[in-house]
Amino acid sequence: MPRFTRIQKIIIAVIAVFMVFGFITRSMQNGNMISKFGYDAFTMLRYSLIENPVETVKNWGSDFSDLWEAKLENDELKHEMSKQKLYNVELQEQKRQNAELKKLLKMNHSITDYGKIGASVVRRDADMWNNLLTINAGSKDGVKQNMAVVSSKGVIGTVKDVFKHTSTVKLLTTESPGENMSVKVSVDDKTSVEGILEYYDAESERFIVTVLSNSKEIKKNMNVITSGLGGKYPGGLYIGKVTKVEEMDNKIGKKLYVKPGADFKNFEYVSVIDYSEDAS
């Protein structure tokens, strides 16, 4: 005897269900107890196998939809919070830059006898961090070799190479200092002691200044500024503060450790000082 196919089985099952449903409905119309019992059984079966599962699936779908909407809303809130953090960082950076520019402007106002060329740091390689950097001002802006460069807190170096739109700056923290800088220690409003800034000690993060004087007046926290001698740096530019005074071995004079006024690790804006006679 041949077996029914799957489709045939489904059709037979559907026909059987409709026959049973019709029989129960007809019996209900006749009102006998057996029919009522059969109708109750059918109703329970229909609820258990059809209506309840369908309602469950419907409720599950509704819950899933609500959950998905909540997830999308949560993702959107997270995105907005991350943007808020970014805005806060940008705001803090803008405030820092504004503060630096204000200090640089104040520094420029204190340097009244010389021309000043504003610039921004555009390149500073890690392997030359303490030696060189590049600014976005060049020959077209009037920059020339050996001009002094200051940040908002003090002298940082001199112009080394000049191109049309950019220039490289040799920092005072360079490992190959080259020529020494003439400086003076301000003892008081009327008295100062001449000295030489010889090099930057990376280990102590201090400039090493020698003064050929045994003056006992030199003490910690005294200011060190450029003297104006030597022709490269104009006088009166801030270098830093004395943090330590040592007697020199077998020599007349003192060795000073000077904390730089400029923050060599963090600055973006500088001024190039035009020390030429026609710039004043």
TrEMBL record:
GO biological process: regulation of cell shape
Membrane spanning stretches: 6-24
Pfam families: MreC
Gene Ontology cellular component list: plasma membrane
Ranges for domain Rod shape-determining protein MreC beta-barrel core: 121-273
Domain of life: Bacteria
Record's keyword terms, sorted: Cell shape, Coiled coil, Membrane, Transmembrane, Transmembrane helix
Ranges in coiled-coil conformation: 74-104
Record family assignment: Belongs to the MreC family.
Task of the protein: Involved in formation and maintenance of cell shape.
Protein's name according to its UniProt entry: Cell shape-determining protein MreC
Gene designation: mreC
